[in-house]
Design a protein that fits this description.
179 residues; three-stranded parallel sheet; globular
Length: 179
């Protein structure tokens, strides 16, 4: 499929118009595996993806959610690929799956690659005032006060609106991103 820069720009603008019209979205959490979903046929890996460029142009708040514990993150990815369980809603989601063989060299390589991805995205977002890098661990393990402060900081960067008790008025478009 050959996609031109103009075609890509038009599709991204239509997508942003849809999000703004239907959901009032101005805060985006973009996943690494989605960054080049809409890109021209040739795109340098070092250049910011058109998706980020389009959202920056519209002054969206961009949330860069990272994992500080890169070894655990890599191990989680290997377990998910091995078991087919990517999201667990219960403690026993992996019961009966048996032991998993982990190649330590592959695990360490994956963790290093993830660190490289983090640094590349940070470079793309550097200098953009509406970008926030947040540690998953700090958010998940933080107190309610810490999480509320983080959410207020994120939503104050764009057009996010808060209810009186400090919870962001943000709609989750898809309950589980794999759907």
């Amino acid at each position: 499929l050959i996609r031109s820069v103009e075609w890509t720009r038009d599709i991204l603008n239509q997508f942003a118009d849809f999000l703004e019209g239907k959901f009032g979205v101005s805060v985006i959490d973009v996943k690494y595996n989605s960054l080049y979903a809409l890109a021209p046929s040739w795109q340098s890996i070092l250049a910011p993806p058109p998706l980020l460029t389009a959202f920056r142009r519209r002054k969206y708040t961009i949330v860069h959610l990272i994992r500080e514990k890169t070894i655990e993150h890599a191990l989680s990815q290997l377990i998910a690929a091995s078991t087919g369980v990517y999201v667990a809603y219960a403690e026993d989601a992996l019961s009966g799956k048996g032991p998993i063989d982990v190649d330590v060299t592959s695990l360490l390589r994956m963790a290093r690659m993830y660190l490289n991805e983090i640094e590349l995205v940070k470079a793309w977002l550097s200098g953009y005032p509406n970008a926030r890098t947040i540690s998953y661990e700090a958010f998940a393990e933080g107190s309610e006060t810490v999480r509320t402060h983080m959410l207020k900081d994120i939503c104050s960067r764009g057009d996010g609106k808060f209810r009186s008790y400090g919870e962001p008025a943000v709609k989750k478009i898809v309950r589980d991103w794999r759907q």
